[in-house]
Amino acid sequence: MAKKKTLFECQSCGFQSPRWMGKCTSCNEWESMIELSTEQIKYLKETASTSNISTMKAKPITQIEEDNITRFTSGSTELDLVLGGGIVPGSLTLIGGSPGVGKSTLLLKIAGNLARVSKKVLYVSGEESAGQIKLRANRLEANHDNLYLLPEINLSTVISEITNQPYKLIIIDSIQTLYSEDTPSAPGSVTQVRTITFDLMRIAKSLHIPIFIIGHITKDGSIAGPRVLEHMVDTVLYFEGDTNSDLRLLRGFKNRFGATNEVGIFEMNKEGLNDAKSMAGKFFNKDKLQSGSSLTVIMEGSRPIIIEVQALVSEAYGHAKRSSTGFDNNRLGMLLALLEKKLDLPLGTYDVFINISGGIKVNDPSADLAIIAAILSSYRDRELSSETLFLGEVSLTGEIREISSLSQRLKEIETQGFKKAVIPNKASEKTAIKCFIADEVSKVVEWM
Fold first, then answer.
1. Whole-angstrom Cα distance, residue 448 to residue 375?
2. CA distance readout (Å), 144 to 36, 75, 129
C-alpha cells in the first residue's frame, strides 16, 4: 500500500511541514499546526502547478508610461492624510486593530460620506446582520440610498454582486469571515485568507474599484493570517490607542501610493469616530506639572504633537523593576544605565516606571531628553517648569544629538503658548522661544 502523505500548515503564518510540531519554527506560535485534508493537499498541488503563460515581454523602463493616479476624498481629512491624499481607484487597503477600537465604525462612516455625494458603496459584513449595521448607521448619520448592505460570507455571492452593480467602493468586514467554495478549507484559515485576498485584488485591479478589508489581529498585535496577506495588499493601516480613551491613532505601515510616516488622529464620541479637530492639550496637562512630569514635542509624520512624559522613581524592595507604557523598554534601560554612569545616580536600587500620557506610542528618539528630565524630576521630587519643553536624542556617550524638523517643533511650541525649550542645537529660523543649548546630559541638570 502507498504511504499516506500528510501535511501540516501553521494557521498564523502559513508555514507548512510534513510532520506536526507543537511550536511553529517560522513564527514561534504554539499549537498552530493543523493537518490538511487530502482535498486540501490536492488543491494546493493543483494551484501550484497551474500557471497562466503570459505573452508580455520586457520593455526598457524609458519606454514605460507613468500611471496617472487620480484620488477622490473619503470625506475624512485624517484618513485622506494617512492614505497620501485620498482613496486611489483600484487599490486594496487592509485595516487592522484590536476589537472595539473603531475599524467598522470608521469604514461605515466613510461609506456614509461617499454615499452622501452620490457614490454607490457596498458594505459586506460576515459578522453582523443588516439590522445591526442599520443601528450603527443611524448613530453615524450614514443612512443614504447609495449605501448598500450585504450580510454574506460566500465569496462567489459577493463577487456576483460587485460585478453586477457599478460600485465606487467596496468594504469587507472582515476578511476572516469570508470563504471560497473552490478552496477546501475552513473560513479564516490560511488557505482561505490567501485565496480570497488574491481574488479581491484581481477584482480591484480589473474593475478599478477601491476595496477596504478589515483584518483581525492576534494577541501580539499583528494581523491574523499569513504574512503574505500584508504583501498582497497596496496599503496596510493599523489602529492604535487605548479603548478606554477617546483618542484613536490610524498609522500607515505600507502604502504603494504615498508615504508611510503619516498618522491620522480620531476622536470617539456618541456620533462615532470623527476627525480630531485640534491636538492642543490632547496629550498633556495644561495645568501645573507635578514632580515626575516633563513635556516634549514629537513628530508624527508631518505633524508636531506636544506630549507629556510621566516618570515614577521609588525605592525597590528586592529586584529593581523597569517598566514603560508607550515607550521602548530597552531604550529606557539604556537611558537609566547612562544616568548611573554620567551622573552617579544609584538607580540600580530604584524602581522606574515610564508612561506616555494619552495612550500614544513614542518612536521618535527626540523624546530621550524628556524621559531623562522626568526621571530626574521624580528622583529628586522636584517639579519642572510647565513652560519648558525638552527636545533631544541622547547617545550612549551622553551626547545630546540634533533632531529633525526643529524649526517646525519650535513653531508648535510657540503656537501653544510655551516660553522655553531645551534643545541640542540652534534653530535655523528666528523664534520667540527662549532656547537653552544642551550638548551633554550633565548640562540638563543646570536647566532643571
1. 12
2. 45, 15, 18
Q: Are residues 164 and 232 in the same domain?
A: yes
208 and 90 part of one domain: yes
For the chain, what is the domain count?
A: 3
Is 64 inside a domain boundary? no
Q: Which pLDDT tens digit goes with each residue over 32-44? A: 787 776 666 665 5
Question: Running DSSP on this structure, what letter comes out for residue 23?
Answer: B
77 beta partners: none
Q: The domain that contains 156 carries what CATH number? A: 3.40.50.300
> What is the domain range of residue 337?
293-447
The CATH number covering residue 318 comes to 3.30.230.10
Q: Could you say which DSSP state residue 436 is in?
A: E
Both 96 and 238 in one domain: the answer is yes
DSSP 16: E
Cβ(273)–Cβ(248) under 8 Å?
Answer: yes
Threshold 0.90, pTM exceeds: no
Long-range contacts of 344-350 (CB under 8 A, 24+ apart): 345/379, 347/313, 347/320, 347/375, 347/379, 348/320, 349/315, 349/316, 349/320, 350/313, 350/314, 350/315, 350/316, 350/320, 350/379
Per-residue model confidence as pLDDT tens digits over 171-185 = 999 888 888 887 767
Cβ–Cβ under 8 Å, residues 236 and 94: yes
Q: What is the mean pLDDT of the chain?
A: 84
pLDDT tens digits, residue range 357-408?
877 889 889 999 999 999 999 999 999 888 889 999 999 888 888 888 888 8
- Report d(CA 179, CA 185) in Å as an integer: 8
Residues 267, 314, single domain; the answer is no
Query: Nine-digit cell at 427?
Result: 534653530
